[in-house]
Design goal:
The structure holds 2 protein chains of 2 kinds. Chain A is of the alpha+beta class. Chain A has one domain: Roll (T-fold). In chain A, 33% of the residues lie in helices and 27% in strands. An 8-stranded antiparallel beta sheet of chain A has the order 1-2-3-4-7-10-11-12. In chain A, helix 1 runs antiparallel to helix 4. By secondary structure, chain B is α+β, with helices and mostly antiparallel strands. In chain B, strands 1, 2, 3, 4 and 5 form a 5-stranded antiparallel beta sheet that branches. The chains are: A alpha+beta, B alpha+beta. Strand 12 of chain A pairs antiparallel with strand 6 of chain B.
Chain lengths: 244, 139
């Protein structure tokens, strides 16, 4: 089963290989993601995030509390480079909400009996029952890859500037993070992979070392000088053909 | 008083490398920069200037600390220590110990048979031309 839908402003591609899993499992995934968009988008005035930011929400939901706790964890861990409350801007926890909600969607699939699936939310990927071959987009060529990795059960997230420009701000300086072209993190869950990728990207080259030191995280980074830095445990697929 | 100005300027100039210094991309340790000149013996009036030829330099053994390996080099002037220099020191004191050695390579262009693509969040327009769209269309 394959499905593609636009949610939260990006395409979400779902592939489920178990023939026994009903279409309703995919319906539930997209329904959940639409619900997340309605509840946590800072661009929707009546979302929980917008209401909290305006001081209209005295008792945040359990989910919102979990998201804000994650944001605070990564703000502290990066010395303020990752910050969802930048001066002069509204509360924007999108970077954490995305990974967290897609990971939850993957858990919905598992609960529905899916054993082999691949869920790709705008470039952030959760897989189960691999082997899966995941290409990492080349930071300078949209139709090419810079590496291919093998994933069985896990998650991959990439942060970069090539799609939406300098949208990741280093909270320590208030300026766009420009030290890296692209940074990919492999982790057991997408909650972690996506948050770490964004937070490390905000830190710049220093963030590569920070992410590499995190338990369970493997890193593949391309710096502004086009040098690749990767952890020894990054699950590079060996068979990828190199094009001159 | 005018003489003070060059002194101040030189002092500030001397600090510039310190401000410009950013923790480098090296992972575990860095070779400590060679000090411009171990200034203590020259400026200290109490040190016996006779001993330049009798000074010996000894490198200590590497000690693995919680923050990374540390190695010092000690210069003896006779029996007295005249200077101490760091040969190895942790680059990032907070994180170095846990960071695996990163492998550096050049950026490559690959094309391969893949199931899915990880990349920066793509917009609706970007998706149309993306590899993921091609994979989805192929089915």
């Amino acid at each position: 089963m394959r499905r593609v839908e636009q949610v939260m402003g990006f395409p979400v591609s779902l592939r489920i290989d178990d023939a026994s899993v009903p279409e309703s499992a995919a319906d539930a995934v997209f329904a959940w993601l639409h619900q997340v968009d309605a509840r946590f988008s800072p661009f929707k005035p009546d979302s929980e995030v917008s209401r909290l930011d305006r001081g209209e929400l005295s008792d945040p939901s359990e989910d919102l509390t979990e998201i804000l706790d994650l944001c605070e964890h990564y703000r502290t861990a990066t010395g303020g480079a990752f910050d969802v409350r930048l001066p002069g801007r509204g509360l924007d926890p999108c970077a954490v909400v995305k990974g967290w909600s897609v990971q939850r969607a993957a858990e919905l699939l598992r609960a529905a009996g899916a054993k082999r699936f691949c869920l790709n939310a705008g470039g952030d990927v959760v897989t189960a029952g691999g082997p899966w071959r995941v290409g990492v987009r080349h930071p300078e060529h949209a139709d090419q890859l810079c590496t291919v990795l093998h994933l069985t059960d896990g998650a991959v997230a990439t942060s970069a500037r090539y799609e939406r420009g300098d949208h990741i701000i280093d909270g320590r300086t208030g300026r766009p993070a420009t030290g890296l072209l692209s940074l990919t993190v492999v982790a057991p869950t997408l909650t972690e992979a996506d948050s770490v990728a964004t937070a490390a990207f905000a830190m710049g080259t220093e963030g590569v070392h920070w992410a590499a030191g995190l338990e369970g995280c493997e890193v593949f980074a391309v710096d502004a000088g086009r040098q690749v830095l990767r952890t020894p445990g990054f699950p590079t697929a060996r068979t990828g053909a190199t094009v001159a | 008083m005018k003489r003070a100005i060059p002194v101040v300027v030189l002092s500030i100039a001397g600090l510039v490398p310190v401000w410009l210094y950013e923790p480098s991309a090296a992972t575990s340790t860095v070779q400590a920069a060679t000090p411009a000149a171990p200034s203590t013996p020259a400026t200290s009036p109490s040190s016996s200037s006779a001993g330049t030829s009798s000074s010996t330099v000894v490198a200590g053994s590497t000690v693995n600390t919680e923050k990374g390996p540390v190695q010092v080099e000690v210069t003896f002037d006779g029996d007295e220590i005249s200077s101490v220099r760091m040969l190895q020191q942790p680059n990032h004191p907070q994180t170095t110990a846990a960071v695996p050695k990163l492998i550096a390579s050049t950026l490559q262009v690959q094309s391969a048979d893949i199931d899915t693509v990880s990349g920066a969040t793509i917009t609706t327009d970007g998706y149309k031309e993306s590899l993921q769209a091609a994979i989805d269309a192929k089915g």
